[in-house]
């Protein structure tokens, strides 16, 4: 795998839209061509070479290309967005839309990410070695399609409205979370190692939510149906099994109603 290294040399006055910083776009291009790729700052079209020192060599395909980004990226948006293969490592905090609409590959952020990251993620692996903001792996505003595949892991805490409209994939949060986790969820798996504020699984139709810590206020639409021993992210534990959200519509399979499950560690 060949590596292209981008080092921030100048900060944008507004915010830089880095949609072209992903292995799919870099693959097969010389460094000079990569430097000429466009990057919007507001309405103005600048180039990546205006803001980054670019070295190394790309691979022939996205799968053969690794991108390393160094320097302060707190005003950089869309890093790794829409990538389908290859690898990216960002050694900084990042702004909105980082890792959004991913379909494959691996994206690692060694820092925090802002709100609206990993939107509608469909595949690949998104690792956040810091905290995440609001609307992580959720649906884009006005849409009903959230995360549908892949794995997203947050080593720190996350904000509110995370995994809204989730239909598939796995989200793992090692820390705590604020309100509205898994709202309108219709599939997939959420594993929360820490605590949740309240309103977990509101309007959940299908899917699984594992909570290893505590929920400040449990939603009223959940009914305990017993205890189970399950494994979540490599840890076996006993959980109280709640079905819900009982106030939502639920499909039937072989004549039986299908509910989502909220598992609370004992």
Task: Explain what the structure shows.
This protein is mainly β and 266 residues long. It has a domain at 112-265. The protein contains 2 helices and 21 strands. The chain has helices spanning 23-26, 31-35, and strands at 2-8, 16-17, 38-41, 44-47, 52-56, 65-70, 76-77, 87-91, 103-109, 123-128, 151-154, 170-173, 186-192, 196-198, 206-211, 215-217, 223-232, 235-244, 252-253, 256-257, 260-265. The strands form 4 sheets. The protein has a 13-stranded mixed sheet with strand order 5-1-6-8-9-10-11-12-13-15-21-18-17. It has a 4-stranded mixed sheet with strand order 4-3-2-7, with no helix packed on it. A hairpin with a 2-residue loop joins β19 (252-253) and β20. The protein starts with a strand and ends with a strand. The relative contact order is 0.09. The mean pLDDT is 97.
């Amino acid at each position: 795998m060949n590596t292209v290294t981008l080092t921030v040399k100048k900060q944008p006055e507004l915010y830089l839209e880095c949609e072209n910083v992903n292995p799919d776009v870099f693959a097969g291009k010389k460094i000079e061509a990569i430097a000429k790729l466009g990057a919007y700052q507001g309405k103005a079209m600048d180039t990546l070479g205006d803001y980054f020192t670019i070295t190394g060599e790309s691979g022939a395909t996205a799968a053969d290309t690794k991108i390393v980004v160094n320097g302060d990226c707190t005003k950089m948006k869309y890093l790794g967005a829409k990538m389908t293969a290859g690898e990216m490592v960002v050694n900084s905090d990042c702004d909105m839309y980082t890792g959004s609409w991913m379909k494959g590959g691996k994206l690692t952020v060694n820092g925090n990410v802002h709100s609206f990251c990993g939107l509608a993620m469909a595949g690949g692996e998104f690792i956040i070695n810091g905290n995440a903001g609001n609307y992580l792996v959720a649906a884009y505003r006005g849409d009903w399609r959230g995360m549908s595949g892949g794995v997203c892991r947050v080593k720190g805490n996350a904000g509110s409205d995370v995994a809204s409209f989730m239909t598939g994939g796995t989200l793992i949060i090692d820390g705590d979370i604020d309100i509205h986790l898994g709202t309108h969820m219709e599939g997939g798996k959420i594993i929360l190692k820490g605590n949740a504020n309240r309103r977990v699984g509101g309007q959940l139709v299908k899917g699984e939510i594992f909570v290893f810590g505590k929920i400040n206020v449990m939603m009223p639409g959940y009914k305990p149906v017993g205890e189970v021993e399950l494994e979540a992210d490599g840890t076996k534990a006993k959980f109280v099994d709640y079905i819900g959200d009982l106030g939502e519509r639920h499909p039937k399979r072989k004549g039986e109603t299908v509910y989502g499950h909220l598992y609370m560690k004992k």
